[in-house]
Design goal:
heterodimer; A: mainly alpha; two-stranded antiparallel sheet; B: alpha+beta; Nucleotidyltransferase, domain 5; six-stranded mixed sheet; 25 helices; elongated; INO80C/Ies6 (chain A); transcription (chain A); Vps72/YL1_C (chain A)
Chain lengths: 115, 660
């Protein structure tokens, strides 16, 4: 909201524009908010909207790939939870700083129970 | 609406925006649909403020310049896009416009570039692309912006993929059914079209696109080469655009990459710019340092010698004098002798004799030292003390052994260091392990006390020295005190190795170092070439639970009866910038083969210009004679409200938001 006020004050006057400003709560609406608004609109249930067109969840089992090299990974390191394909990768994992390990895990979308 | 008016066609994509007149061959304006507001340089501002105070006449100029610094840059006006990559802002979230401030800036940019500066309003109708199934709220705001702010006479909204399809239909007249696959920057759509109408209820959208591909590669490279982070950022898009491709059979390709010789033969190495001087700099200075040290030593020696000579001369003069005095005494010239003694501040004869002997011995000593052969220098001394390889072992082998030992020590040290830092953080394995040990230690002593009614029984813990290591392991503030011996050994090894390496062939060393430096600045781009775009087919690789493209096509086709499925499969059309990946068509053919019934036909067509075809298709529509029928005019907007728009073959379907 502060962004709205600053940018409107810094607006450059252009000849082809009329003075116009959106209400402050309309300037930026995240998609999630739009979704909630649509849900409350009581649209007929068969009416397709942006949010009903999402792809369905995958029913095929996700293939497992090494986090490091991308090769098919038969193994998981129980400590770091990283997947790996061979002994060299395992060796390289042992010296990996934890932020890199966490980076690989978040890229894959892995969230641990401990957090 | 006069039909002769030129129409401004805007393909407002989430990656690139293309703007042009409907009667031209290609868009006049193409730009990345982003903007950035450079942060004001505070220091500069302050300077200017003081300047302004000092020079009241220059105030306005200074202020204007200030303003220029903070002005928003859009699209192609962004001076250095790499520098502000982290501050780029887009009006889009996925493929939907959510930030209207940013969109207004983009429109300002478009209309200024298209020559509206100085005019009172936008006098031309506009064709604008929007997201498939664009939420009513977003369209209302878009209409408000266009009609209220820019006073646009009329607008026509359409879907980019369908415009592209219309353009494609020029070559395939009469084709009314198709399965459109639209590969966008933030989303990928599967759009079934039957009898020329989009089957909206069966359209599906995969929320994975070019952005995710680029970002995935960026994250992978960032973790593979944490040191080259800055060099990586700017190169990722190019790598994706030019060197990535979609594997025909991903598993098979991966197995090939797992072979070392295939890897060696196909790996792409990217040499980052680096400065070879800095690489050999350290070596050069080391040499120069040694030279300087030698010079300094020589000069010091020189000074010392001179001082010694002077001292010797002085001593000899004094000796002469004392001898003369002695002679006076021996010649019994007592009066003269006494006076001379007083002059030299010597009390009596005894003292004179003592002085005489000391000076004599001193001279003798100095002369002896000068005549003696030069003593071996300290450096030579050190050299002699330097350990030599044991008998019967070649020096190189011995050095290699030492090097191995040193590396082992370093590794152990590093491991300890890492363990310590890990223990410091919560939720790491090391920290958890530490808590486990502490609790088992505590539990053990507790149990023992209970069993023995408080009597501590010795279980032999501590008899072995290694038992105590457990306390070292759980000590968070372990400051390496246990490894002093190791540290000393490490120093010793380093001294020896330094000594022998320095005496070794420096030139070869330098060359080796330069080579290493070059290698250290290389990025290896191998599996990534197929791994990164593969997320379109396996979104699970980036933790997205949605069905991959092939699965999605199968899903969409199953929504139709068999006869319609066949009609759709007979014309699969690929469009969108991301459809330019090499191997995409072949891969889709393979996937279609797998998911369609045995011996059934299908055909895949690629867009001739995947990036531009949507814009060209929109122009095409603006050229048809009854174009004005699909325009939503301002009076219609004022009557029907912001959500309303005229439907046409390439548009979304209009449904009013129910009033409650």
């Amino acid at each position: 909201m502060t962004e709205a006020t600053t940018s409107s004050s810094a607006k450059v006057k252009r000849t082809f524009k009329q003075t116009f400003a959106f209400p402050k709560n309309c300037v930026y609406r995240p998609l999630r908010q739009i979704q909630n608004m649509e849900r409350n609109q009581k649209l007929p249930p068969e009416q397709p909207t942006y949010f009903t067109l999402n792809a369905p969840p995958s029913l095929r089992p996700a293939k497992k790939y090494s986090d490091i090299s991308g090769l098919p990974a038969p193994y998981v390191d129980p400590h770091s939870k990283l997947r790996y394909a061979n002994a060299e990768e395992y060796a390289s994992m042992q010296h990996m700083p934890s932020d890199i390990i966490n980076g690989y895990l978040t890229v894959r979308g892995y969230t641990s129970a401990v957090g | 609406m006069p039909a002769h008016k030129r129409v401004l066609v805007i393909d407002n994509g989430s990656y690139e925006c293309r703007v042009g007149w409907h009667d031209s061959k290609e868009p006049e304006l193409r730009f990345r649909n982003v903007l950035t507001k450079p942060r004001k340089d505070r220091k500069k501002d302050n300077n200017q403020a003081t300047d302004a105070l000092a020079l009241p006449a220059g105030t306005t100029a200074a202020q204007e310049e200030c303003k220029g610094n903070g002005e928003i840059q859009v699209g192609n006006d962004i001076i250095n896009i790499e520098a502000v990559r982290a501050h780029l802002k887009s009006p889009f979230e996925r493929n939907v416009i959510t930030n209207w401030n940013h969109q207004e800036q983009i429109f300002d940019y478009i209309f200024t570039k298209m020559g509206y500066e100085g005019k009172e309003s936008i006098a031309n109708p506009i064709v604008l692309t929007e997201a498939l199934a664009n939420p009513n709220i977003c369209r209302r705001q878009m209409s408000e912006l266009l009609f209220e702010c820019y006073r646009v006479p009329a607008v026509s909204y359409g879907i980019d993929a369908l415009y592209s399809w219309q353009q494609h239909q020029q070559q395939h007249k009469g084709v009314q059914d198709a399965l459109i696959l639209s590969f966008g920057y933030s989303t990928t759509h599967v759009i079934p079209v039957l009898n020329g109408r989009m089957q909206l209820e069966h359209v599906r959208r995969l929320n994975v696109g070019g952005f995710h591909i680029i970002n995935y590669l960026f994250r992978l490279m960032q973790m593979k080469y944490p040191v080259h982070l800055n060099a990586i950022t700017s190169r990722m898009e190019k790598l994706v655009h030019e060197h990535s491709h979609i594997a025909l059979d991903y598993q098979e390709e991966l197995l090939k990459w797992a072979q070392l010789d295939y890897y060696e033969a196909h790996i792409m190495k990217i040499q980052l710019p680096y400065n070879p001087v800095t690489a050999s700099n350290a070596l050069l200075t080391a040499e120069q340092k040694q030279e300087k040290r030698r010079e300094l030593a020589l000069r010091l020696l020189d000074i010392k010698n001179r001082r010694e000579r002077e001292k010797l001369q002085e001593d000899e003069e004094q000796l002469q004098l004392l001898r003369k005095l002695r002679l006076l005494y021996e010649q019994q010239k007592m009066q003269k002798f006494e006076r001379a003694l007083q002059q030299q501040q010597i009390s009596n004869l005894e003292e004179l004799d003592k002085l005489l002997t000391t000076v004599q011995s001193r001279i003798k000593r100095v002369k002896e030292r000068a005549s003696a052969p030069p003593r071996p220098s300290k450096q030579q001394d050190k050299l002699d003390k330097m350990p030599k390889p044991p008998e019967g072992v070649p020096q190189a082998q011995w050095l290699a052994e030492l090097r191995g030992k040193r590396e082992e020590l370093m590794r152990r040290k590093q491991a300890r260091q890492q363990q310590r830092t890990e223990q410091g953080k919560r939720h790491t394995h090391a920290a958890q392990e530490r808590m486990r040990i502490i609790s088992t230690l505590a539990a053990r002593s507790e149990k023992r006390r209970k069993v023995n009614n408080g009597d501590e029984e010795d279980d032999g813990f501590g008899m072995n020295d290694n038992d105590w290591d457990v306390y070292k392991r759980i000590n968070r503030y372990n400051d390496d005190s246990d490894s002093d011996a190791e540290n000393e050994q490490l120093l010793e090894f380093e001294k020896i190795l330094n000594h022998y390496d320095a005496n070794g062939d420096d030139a070869q060393n330098a060359a080796m170092q330069a080579l290493n430096a070059a290698e250290n600045y290389q990025l290896h781009f191998g599996v990534e070439a197929i791994r990164v775009p593969e997320i379109l087919f396996q979104p699970s690789m980036i933790g997205c639970s949605e069905a991959g493209l092939a699965e999605l096509i199968a899903f969409v086709l199953k929504l139709f009866p068999a006869e319609e499925q066949q009609r759709l499969a007979d014309h699969v059309y690929l469009t969108g910038s991301c459809a330019q990946f090499r191997g995409l068509k072949a891969r889709l053919a393979k996937e279609m083969m797998e998911l369609r019934p045995f011996k059934s036909s299908f055909a895949i067509y690629e867009s001739q210009d995947p990036a531009l075809s949507a814009w060209l298709g929109a122009c095409l529509q603006a050229r048809v004679p009854n174009f004005s029928e699909v325009l939503t005019t301002r009076s219609q907007y004022e009557e029907q409200g912001g959500e309303y728009f005229k439907e046409h073959r390439a548009s979304n379907s209009y449904y009013p938001t129910p009033k409650d």
